[in-house]
Amino acid sequence: MAATFLTSIAGIATYEILQIAHGGAIAPDWALGAWLGAGGFVGSYLGARLQHRVPETSIRRLLGLIACLAALRYIQQGVQPAPARHSVAAAKLTRTFHSSPLGLGAIWCRQDPVMT
């Protein structure tokens, strides 16, 4: 619990620093965070209940499959060509750091269109 609390504090501090540095409002996606939190809560409860009923080998294989699928998705996203840029109203992409249960990670946030 302490690690989760410290990760949350680091995420909040990061958003505050980004808001000061960029001079505008940079807000997390609260709905997505609520859904992920609810899923984590339900998943941890069900995982603890099912742990004694599912063989260890099956759990390891399932986790390995999930890790492989996540890796394939990352590779797919990395191989896709970059989106075309429009000169009049190009959407500006900025890298921000967010807090997650696995630690700090980088995400790309689309800001309002800017005139170039």
Structure description:
- The protein is an alpha+beta fold and 116 residues long.
- The protein has one domain (2-115).
- The chain is 57% helix and 22% strand.
- It is built from three helices and two strands.
- The chain has helices at residues 2-22, 30-50, 56-79; strands spanning 89-100, 103-115.
- Strands 1-2 form a two-stranded antiparallel sheet.
- The longest helix is centred in the middle third of the chain and has 24 residues, at 56-79.
- The chain is flat, with a radius of gyration of 19 Å.
- The chain starts with a helix and ends with a strand.
- Mean pLDDT is 76; it is low at 87-91 and 95-116.
In brief, what are we looking at here?
With 116 residues, the protein is an alpha+beta fold.
Strand content: 15-25%
Global outline: flat
Number of helices: 3
Structural class: alpha+beta
Give the spatial strand order of the biggest sheet.
1-2
Order of helices and strands: HHHEE
Q: What integer value in Å does the Rg equal?
A: 19 Å
- How helix-rich are the residues, as a percent range? 55-70%
Number of domains: 1
- Largest sheet data: 2 strands, antiparallel
What is the overall pLDDT average? 76
